[in-house]
Specification:
It is globular and about 60 Å long. Helix content is 36%, strand content 17%. It is an alpha/beta fold and 390 residues long. It has helices at 16-28, 37-50, 61-71, 88-96, 141-150, 223-233, 244-277, 311-322, 350-358, 372-387, and strands spanning 54-58, 79-83, 100-104, 106-107, 112-113, 126-132, 154-158, 166-168, 190-192, 199-203, 216-220, 284-285, 301-306, 328-330, 344-345, 359-363. An eight-stranded mixed beta sheet has the order 1-11-10-7-6-2-3-15, with helices on both faces. Strands 12-13-16-14 form a four-stranded antiparallel beta sheet. Strands 4-5 form a two-stranded antiparallel ribbon. The protein has one domain: 3-Layer(aba) Sandwich (Aspartate Aminotransferase, domain 2), CATH 3.40.640.10. Bound molecules: pyridoxal-5'-phosphate. Pyridoxal-5'-phosphate (PLP) binds next to helix 3 and helix 4.
């Protein structure tokens, strides 16, 4: 029997504290001001949360990426590395500052930039590298920073999909989980994603884990980058502003982010465990999640790759799930088919091409629903029946 799961995907969820924040902004008149208290408070809260010195609020995650590129000094004639499977706006941002995107492959276990052969992608034209942590994956950011810094390139971490995720830089989570921690628990340290590269970008778009309908931020500890961002954005007034009302609704959400991320993580693990056991397990690929108190991804989209050469299989599964109002859709299209006049491909980027063809992504709101176990069962059932005879 078909179920209707539309309520499980409602976003944002109603939160009385968000309502109170809006009322407060209404009562004190901040809603109509250029420089009320809410933007200043949000800047401070984000600075404290990420332990960074500089926070620039802005109007979207996309413009945050362009601001970060300009802050890094990227301009015409430069090259910028990015994963060949990524948010399309990141490619456009590189073009909009006059630079050339250089596509590197992804790791098919993390959906994020791989370090295989990465070193040789850097040339003397490479000014920066955009690293997006995608679909609950964590790119090997420490290794990427080490490689980039050897050549003087700036690392821009795109954490639009994963605010609050933690990485344990002392353990190599990208290979096998070590039987014993390589260093004692007390010495190992988790760091928030977005604080390992040189500058990072956040999105507060309507579907995001922290939402104000629209909005974004750029965070960094580099005062030169911050100053360049300010010079680019300020044209007598802030050109890409976040409003007082948007800032007001974000503050209570930020305070709850860690708790909600934990809930989403537990639910994601339950789904991925179930998927690894369904009959169709050989035909799908998702993630194994490694978690401890120093290392925890954050899930905005949960990826499932349908390992079939026939693209109609994925479409059939998406159609079946969508008919029950499960919000699952195609992943990114990737860039490997883009004109070679617009970008340079480093290697064959085969994993990115394959993932772009095979990936579908489940939208996060259901992870917080009490009915999530039923969604897991439905997804497992649809996959089993659709993929049995691949
Ligand atoms: C990885 C990534 N970067 C950047 C963005 C852009 O954010 P915005 O929609 O706020 O412009 C998104 C949006 O989905 C994203 O997923």
């Amino acid at each position: 029997m078909k179920r209707n799961f539309s309520n499980e995907f409602t976003w944002p969820i109603q939160d009385p504290e968000v309502k109170q924040a809006l009322d407060r902004a209404y009562n004190d008149g901040d809603w109509g001001r250029y420089a009320g208290s809410n933007c200043a408070n949000l800047q401070k809260e984000l600075g404290d949360y990420f332990s960074v010195e500089q926070v620039r609020l802005c109007s979207s995650g996309t413009i945050a990426v362009e601001i970060a590129l300009r802050a890094a000094g990227v301009s015409s004639g430069d090259e910028v590395l990015l994963a060949a499977y990524d948010f399309p706006g990141n490619f456009r941002c590189i073009e909009s500052v006059g630079a050339t995107p250089v596509l590197v492959d992804v790791d098919s276990n993390t959906w994020s930039m791989s370090t295989n052969d990465l070193e040789s992608a850097f040339t003397d034209k490479t000014k920066a590298c955009i690293v997006s942590h995608l679909h609950g994956g964590i790119a090997p950011i420490k290794r990427i920073v080490d490689i980039a810094h050897r050549t003087g390139a700036v690392v821009i971490e795109d954490i639009c999909q994963c605010p609050g995720a933690m990485v344990d830089c002392d353990t190599d989570w990208h290979d096998n989980l070590p039987a014993q921690p390589t260093t004692p628990e007390t010495v190992r340290q988790g760091k928030k994603l977005g604080t390992i590269g040189d500058i990072a970008t956040l999105s507060f778009g309507g579907s995001k884990l922290l939402t104000a309908g629209r909005g974004g931020a750029v965070i960094t500890n580099n005062s030169t980058f911050h100053q360049r961002a300010t010079i680019f954005c300020d044209r007598g007034n802030d050109t890409f502003p976040l409003s007082e009302l948007q800032a007001a609704v974000l503050i209570p959400q930020l305070k709850k982010l860690d708790k909600k991320n934990r809930q989403r993580l537990d639910a994601s693990r339950a789904l991925l465990d179930t998927l690894s056991q369904v009959n169709a397990a050989n035909s799908i690929k998702s993630k194994s999640i490694k978690v401890d108190r120093h290392h925890a991804p954050a899930f905005y989209k949960i990826p499932i790759a349908i390992q079939s050469d026939d693209p109609s299989r994925k479409q059939t599964i998406i159609d079946l799930l969508q008919s029950q109002n499960i919000k699952i859709d195609h992943g990114f299209r990737g860039f490997t088919k883009r004109s070679k006049r617009r970008c340079r491909l480093h290697g064959d980027c085969q994993h990115a091409t394959t993932l772009a063809a095979q990936t579908m992504v489940l939208h996060h709101p259901c992870l917080l629903s009490d009915n999530f176990p039923e969604i897991v069962d439905t997804i497992a059932e649809v996959l089993t029946t659709s993929l049995d005879n691949i």
